[in-house]
Specification:
It holds the Pfam family DUF4133. InterPro entries: DUF4133. It comes from Spirosoma sordidisoli. This is DUF4133 domain-containing protein. The N and C termini lie far apart (61 Å). It is built from 4 helices and 2 strands. The protein has one domain (13-104). Helix 1 runs antiparallel to helix 2. By secondary structure, the protein is mainly α.
Amino acid sequence: MFKVNKGIDRPPEVLGIRGMDFIYYLAGAAVGLLLLTCLLMFLFGIPAKIAFGGYIVLLLALYSVFARLSQQHGERGLNKQRGRERHPKVVLVRDSGVYRQLRHKPVGKA
């Protein structure tokens, strides 16, 4: 059995992947690949050994990608990346009224 928790105040880690986002994505990818493998077997008549061999190879490749990303970015790496994408690259101020209000406001007084 896999040891999931390593103690209090430590993130869950499964097979070297830290953070629930990475674990959920890997589980979703495994289920999606399994459905794709079954679909290929039934629709195109691919032999089971070849189909499941491809499944294992693709799943190991996805695991290595997620393990590398987890190690590189940490347990909250995906949330940080999503947060960076939502920040504006440039803030445009087209009205100088903002600066006039700041200039006339006394500093330090409430």
